[in-house]
Design goal:
Blueprint (H helix, E strand, L loop, with lengths): L3 E3 L7 E5 L4 E8 L4 H18 L5 E10 L1 H14 L31 H4 L1 H10 L15 H4 L9 E8 L3 H14 L3 E6 L4
Parallel strand pairs: 3-4, 4-5, 5-6
Antiparallel strand pairs: 1-2, 2-3
Helix pairs in contact: 1-2
Length: 194
């Protein structure tokens, strides 16, 4: 796949989607007059990316100064799609009836073996486990089996939300996005977004 590189304008953000580096960045102001025309090709690119990059560590960097409601809708859709990077990860399909927490011999829930006993808990814990920076293949711990440890999977999607130090509204917006996507974000306050 070819990378996408779009220079920023007064109404549209800079976009750098790098296929080889598994890095997608959107930065600047996003108030396009035709959001469909601007964002639809990006969503198509993400669909192609997902077909080829299952379970590969991917970083999304959002450095937005301001964006409109239409942009917000596209960003949420894009992030929800990218969350599907993890094969078989279908949180929307999980329910307590399908994945019960099994009690241990003493009657308490067994949290020592969540990957075996409680796949639902395993998915939640996996989302909260930070992904190592230097890996492209999550869940790799060569010594775990020898040491008798269970390695919980990490989610391959890392979302960095950059915001200007003085812009508490944008920080709060990032927190709102984090709750909608249901995946922990990395928040980075910077002096200025250029």
């Amino acid at each position: 796949m070819e990378d996408i590189i779009i220079e920023k304008t007064s109404k549209t953000p800079a976009v750098h989607f790098n296929f080889e580096e598994n890095r997608l960045e959107i930065a600047g102001v996003s108030i396009p007059e035709d959001a469909d025309n601007f964002y639809y090709p990006l969503l198509e690119w993400v669909d192609g990316y997902l077909d080829q990059k299952k379970n590969q560590a991917t970083t999304v960097i959002l450095k937005l100064i301001y964006f409109n409601t239409a942009t917000s809708d596209y960003l949420v859709t894009m992030l929800k799609n990218l969350k599907k990077l993890q094969e078989g990860y279908q949180e929307e399909d999980l329910s307590k009836e399908e994945m019960p927490i099994a009690p241990s011999e003493n009657g308490f829930h067994d949290l020592d073996r969540p990957a075996e006993i409680n796949p639902e808990l395993s998915a939640v814990i996996a989302q909260q486990t930070p992904m190592p920076e230097d890996t492209k293949a999550p869940n790799q711990d060569e010594n775990a089996e020898e040491e008798g440890r269970i390695v919980l999977p990490t989610h391959p999607l890392r979302v960095e939300w950059h915001y200007e130090e003085e812009d508490e509204d944008m920080r709060e917006t990032g927190t709102h996005f984090e709750s909608i996507i249901d995946l922990p974000f990395v928040f980075k306050a910077v002096e200025e977004i250029d």
